[in-house]
Amino acid sequence: MVSDKVAIIGAGMTRFHHSLHIDKSAREMFIEAFTDCVGSVDKGMNHKDIEALFIANTVSELFEHQSHLSSLIPDWLGLLPIPSTRIETACASSSTALEMGVLAIASGMYDMVLVGGLEKMTALRTDEVTWALMSGMDQVYESPQGVSNPALYAMMGMAHFKKYGSSWDQLASISIKNHYNASLNPKAQYQSEVIDIAKKVGQKKGLSFKNEMDFLKSDANPYVAYPLRLFDCSPISDGASTLILASAKKAKEFTDTPIYISGIGHTSGTMSLHDREDLTTIPAAVEAGKRAHKMAVTKPKDIDLAMVHDCFTPAEMIATEDLGFFKKGEGGKAAEEGRTSLKGEIPINTDGGLKAKGHPIAATGTAMTHEIWKQLRGEADKRQIQNAETGLTHNVGATGGTAVVQIFKR
Amino acid sequence: MVSDKVAIIGAGMTRFHHSLHIDKSAREMFIEAFTDCVGSVDKGMNHKDIEALFIANTVSELFEHQSHLSSLIPDWLGLLPIPSTRIETACASSSTALEMGVLAIASGMYDMVLVGGLEKMTALRTDEVTWALMSGMDQVYESPQGVSNPALYAMMGMAHFKKYGSSWDQLASISIKNHYNASLNPKAQYQSEVIDIAKKVGQKKGLSFKNEMDFLKSDANPYVAYPLRLFDCSPISDGASTLILASAKKAKEFTDTPIYISGIGHTSGTMSLHDREDLTTIPAAVEAGKRAHKMAVTKPKDIDLAMVHDCFTPAEMIATEDLGFFKKGEGGKAAEEGRTSLKGEIPINTDGGLKAKGHPIAATGTAMTHEIWKQLRGEADKRQIQNAETGLTHNVGATGGTAVVQIFKR
């Protein structure tokens, strides 16, 4: 009933960054992303054509002591009095906002809506950000044990190593790939390959690294939560991203190349890791993938490229298995063999991923879709995947309490 | 396209209270409301028939340092792996969750969904609650001026007094009416009429009050923000409320008396009062009312009873005017004359309103609808409005940055 009824006619975002937006509030970043988005509409549009907003944000209550962004944003965009709703499902928030926009249009209530996400993380210190993000975990049963987000994903990685013989070297290859992809993406937070960072750090510290792995295994890449080192972790980022959705019928007025939302799978899973039988998979993501493919009438082999939730490198390894791109236990090996690179059989995180593109939490989902939009329209420049027709996004809230998989077609 | 396509087949809530739920976390209150809701379905149901959740919460990040309730709630309700989304539009949050549920079903994606709201406010001290709720105001331009929520509504009341000659005595009559209605509602926080409270307070303090107004004008009813006194303000409350929605077709399997959602008006307004031309009205609410009536094909005179957002007594006075029940400037007089009482021409807040039923912020919207559901089905006991066929809810986020008006029919 919903598949292909709604299309994306515009996509925009700020660059994701840790210092670039330091003087901007979240609302100002959102305006920047919105302006970029309106400018991307092929045949132009009047922003007053937008009938409703779905704004994703995770915890601006903690970052800026600002809730009720649903009111603030349309006010600042000059879009009053249209309806506006704030959506939150932890890291999956803006993928869920996209889903709400699709349902709202498919219901017949609206023809055109704006969806997007924003996060102003640098308003807090690093330790405070870790504290704020832990609010996405169970505050009664999980957080009090002293675990942090990197620690939880480190446990998932270790369980995978033990069960399947995967290795930290494989995880490092994911980080190297994502940094390479980000070096080709002007919207990415880090636009340097790991080898170039190694050279810079080496010069600064008077050290000489033989190659990337020599650098990544050195103290210059310190442990965050064993076995995860700094380069296994997505950074703290500020940013905003937006999409304009229209009914399939209306979309043709604005562009000859709309991107259709063909499949949506949104599921919930146990919030805490201690309630999972197996830490090497995220059951909610497996189920979300199945639901998305069922709606889109596709299979994993039909997907030309995918953006997956690599908040930490084990997450990407597990995602590529959960999504059926590789057999269980072989995701790390596949990455190491280059099968997920730009020239691989299934390019993963062509935009640099959360690892190198950045991860302003609630802005991530629609930013993943921003990359799919670029790729399916053939506008991804040096990171373009040839003849990409079908793309997938995989977004996970926290450690898998929420999972959203979405499939897009040209 | 959406009107009357979706019906309510069950409604449930906890009692709203300031101490009753002191040992329960938000999730436990939600389970209680859900159990009440499932039990209210006439022909019974299997909770596994629910396909999606829309959970409203305003700032549990600040109350319990808990975000990602969208994952926690289905986990605790035994509803994994169904999709779940957290919705926030300040005080209007669960009215918006109800709207999302309606759109989701109308889109054809689901046949049956659960919507609801929860808030655990007593997790903080009173001064901290005021601080937490101020996050719903603009943190750059309004909050730094030192205003609090009561102060903002006090300004709106004063502007109304000045422009229309309304009075604090009229506001007091709203408080007295709502306490009376709450005295007939077993789910209400306060189940005492003001006169009974006056007697109790009198005995305790060795004072004698001639009547309700003598009490309300005494120091026993202290100023909070001039001209608002304690009894002009809704209390701090814990609570949860839920509704089960089904497609109109499916609803008949579960009940012979579904309540249809006929009209929805959801709008945004300027977040800050300083951006309004006139403080005596909430433009977003006026527009939301128009939109809801347009969809439901009704007029104000068709409404048999209404639940309006009386976070502070001026809010109810203004709401009854904004909704077109009374001419601009005459809302206070109408209340004083009893025209909004249980036996009046348009009964307002038959459940006691936010003032006396309680106001656990995000639980309020679906609790308003809970009362409409009871009334339209003839199950409101001593507060029953005879032959009620069409009911309206009016919910406002903060001072009018969001407004949601919804119309329900038997």
Whole-Å distance between the termini of chain A? 19 Å
From the alpha-carbon coordinates, what is the Rg of chain A to the nearest angstrom? 20 Å
Q: If helices are DSSP runs of H or I spanning 4 or more residues, what is the number of helices of chain A?
A: 15
Name the structural class of chain A.
alpha/beta
What amount of the residues of chain A lies in strands?
15-25%
Supply the number of structural domains of chain A.
Answer: 1
Structure commentary:
2 copies of one chain form a homodimer. Chain A is of the alpha/beta class. Chain A has one domain (6-124, 235-409): Peroxisomal Thiolase, Chain A, domain 1, CATH 3.40.47.10. Chain A contains 15 helices and 11 strands. Chain A has helices at 26-39, 60-63, 69-77, 93-106, 126-133, 149-164, 168-182, 194-205, 212-216, 248-251, 283-296, 313-322, 331-336, 353-357, 364-376; strands at residues 6-13, 52-56, 84-88, 112-120, 223-225, 228-229, 238-247, 259-268, 305-307, 390-397, 402-409. In chain A, the strands form 2 sheets. A 9-stranded mixed β-sheet of chain A has the order 3-2-4-7-1-8-11-10-9, with helices on both faces. In chain A, a hairpin with a 4-residue loop joins strand 10 (390-397) and strand 11. In chain A, helix 7 crosses helix 12 (313-322). Chain A is globular, with a radius of gyration of 20 Å. The two termini of chain A are 19 Å apart. In chain A, 66% of the residues are buried. The mean pLDDT of chain A is 97. At the A-B interface, helix 3, strand 3, helix 4, strand 8 and helix 11 of A face helix 3, strand 3, helix 4, strand 8 and helix 11 of B.
